[in-house]
Structures are given as structure tokens and as C-alpha cells.
Amino acid sequence: MWYDSIFTDRACGVSPASFGRFRLALQARQNLFSTLELNSVYLTVSKQIINKTLFGDCTLKPKIEFIKIKDNEKLIKLLLEDLVLAPRVKALDWSKITKQTPNMKVGYPGQHLASLITGVQGARTGARGDDLEDGSEVKSCSRVDQLDSCKDCENKVLRIETICPHCGSENLKRMDDSKWLFSVKSEDELKLLTKTLDRIFLTIADYPLFSKNQFDTIRFQAFEIWNNCERHKNFEIIMRNYFYKIFLEHIKINPRKTPAPKNFWPFSYQFYLCNPVKVFQATVTNANTKPSIKIDLLVAPETDREILTPELMPISLLGKDELNILANDANFYIIESLLKNEKCFNDFKEIVFKKNINKKLLAEILPYLDHRARDLLPLRDTDKISESKAKYQRR
DNA sequence: ATGGGGCACCGTCCTTGGTG
DNA sequence: CACCAAGGACGGTGCCCCAT
Length: 395
Description:
The chain is 38% helix and 14% strand. With 395 residues, the chain is α+β, with helices and mostly antiparallel strands. It folds into two domains: 53-143 and 178-311, no CATH class; 312-384, no CATH class. β9 and β10 form a beta hairpin. The radius of gyration is 23 Å and the shape is globular. InterPro entries: Restrct_endonuc_II_MamI (IPR019067).
């Protein structure tokens, strides 16, 4: 994660949290410089060593012995056609007659898809034990075919309808809020989710052209979070926080009610701060009539996830305080390396320090944050473990 | 053997706080 | 005020466990 700056001799902005790791990395680098020449072999070797230094004994390699399904790309296409796209086209036809939702829930198809992408079979449990045989946890969510409503008369509108059937208005509120839900109801479940199993496997189906009101193109994506790895540490913090601050607090108020699960939003601030890596993407065009699938990305099941780059985070997700952190002079090198249009750090500061931040201009010069820049950012208040957590005692 | 309750699946709905 | 992001609540369905 730090090698770019280590090898280019560019300083990294050092937040208090990362200072320790940075120092270790520098030591590793100094040792290496005295013994090896700077060449490609050196880079390969030292990447491994430094990664070890930075991340400790991270597990980022899928367990080969569990990878049993071959010919994945072909099977994925067949599965999507058979289990998702063809049934959906039929459901759309039926909902023209019935006015019922065409949404066939996505849970179990998501498990099938996860098996094909990872090559790892299920554990024959109906998702009551390990979702995948290697222990991975699979979560799916679909933003396709959600129920919409009319902003004028507030009645319900189907996704396939272009005007409100009640009042004829075109002023529709299109829904896009489906997310992954994590149920954590005991210390054991928390430990299982954040320590025992290595991989959280997240799938989502959505419309890439949602903002343009185009619902005929559907995109499937899968992301992985390796929770025992330093790079993905925020996932555990978020889940611990949910369990101690939200779940247990609700139990205290009403022990008989089961508190709601943790809502984990795709493409949210905290999603990106977990450094998810994408392992699969497919785009389906003409999805509502004659679906045609194109696989955009498929990472081979055996691939060491260490070499995959976590998702880039759109700058628009940041608030004023968070932008201010990035604009700190200590972060000069990381930020300047990300700036577009030949802008410099001072241009960035100028935009950020204005009373009203011009978000459009900001996105033009700094569209995305990489994992290094994100490492400078804190989780938001609600995502931090509160002080009182340590005092919590089990009933 | 069976059926009721608990729970895991997720989608949908409600609320709140921030922003423009 | 409208709009949006995010936290939280709740509901329908199906699987599993356990008491009967």
C-alpha cells in the first residue's frame, strides 16, 4: 500500500495511525537498498517483504484446495441467463398484467454466482452455515426492479412504468437504496465475521445508467473484503461499532426485540474505507427484452488478492471536514499525485478552503481517491467504537 | 413425525440530520 | 423547503432446531 511512495522516494503524508507502519516500511527499504540493486527482481522481492512488514501475516490468498469449479466465465454467463435474466424478463411481462413487483429476491442466486466467481462450492447448508466451503461469507443485494413512487401523489409506481398510473405525473422518485445487511448478535458472531473467516464476498446488481433514468442496462459486480488484513481493517471496526454501540444498546432498551441488522451500503463512504477489491463485473444490455451479457472483469479464483487495487473512491462522498484533512500540508505528496488537469496542491487547497466548496470544480481536479489518500481519512463518528465499549459487560 | 419458533435471506419503508 | 445520504425498523419467505 505504501510502496509507490517508498520506491519513488516521494514522502507519504503520515497520519498518526499509519506512522508506525510507515516507519517500519522505511526501515525495510533502507535494509534493502544496502543489499540489492533497484531492478525488477528487486521490486518483486521487496514488494513481498515490505507488504509483510506493513500488513503482518495477511491472508489474501484464496485457499487453493477449495477451488473446485472450472470454466468459470462460461458458467457465469449461463447462470445469469438461466437464473436471473430469463426469469426476470418473464416476471416483467407478468407484472404488466398483475402490477405486482417483478423483483425475484436475489439471495440464493447471489450464492450461486459467488461460487462460480470464486470457484468455491457451497457447503450444502442453505446459507445457514458457511456460505462457501472455504468459510467465505456471501452477501448479495439488488437495486434492480425496486419499487418506486410518485413525488406528486405519493402512490406506488413500478420501475417499468414511465408515468404515475394514478395521476399521470412524470415526477417519479426512483429508488436505489438496497444494501448488504449484516446480522451480528453476539460476541461469537462478531468474532466469526471479523476474525474466523477470511473473506467477505459482496455481490450487487444495479443500473450503471441509473442517473440517466435508463433501466435497460444492468450491471453485476462482486467485491471482496479480507478482514484479517491491515488494508481492510476498517471493516472490523465498523462491525464492532455496530455490535457494541447499536445492537447492544438496543438490547439494553428492549431485550425482547431483535435490533435491526447492520446496513452496509454499496459505494458509501464506509464501503470505500474498507478498501474493497473488485473481482467481477458484467454488463447486461437490452436487459428488459433480449439480454446480452458482457463480462467486463473476472479475476481468476487463484489470484492473490494482494496485487488487486482497491476501488477508487469518488471525492463527492467527502464532507467539508474530511476535505480539510486532505488539504493538510502533510498530505502534499499523496494529494498532488492524484490531481488532474495539471493542477497543484495549492489549487486544491484553494477550492477546499473556500466557504462554499465548488463540488463540480473539485471533482474535475481530484475525481477519485486511491487507498493511500483514503488511509488519511477517519471513519465517521457513528462508525467509531465509542469510549463506553470497554466498560460493557455481558449480562 | 410434526409443527411452532427462531433466525437468515434480503427488499422496502421510515426517520433524521445535513446541505443548498 | 426539497433533496439526499445514511441509520434504523420491519416484513415475507424458507430453512433448521427442538419440544411435543
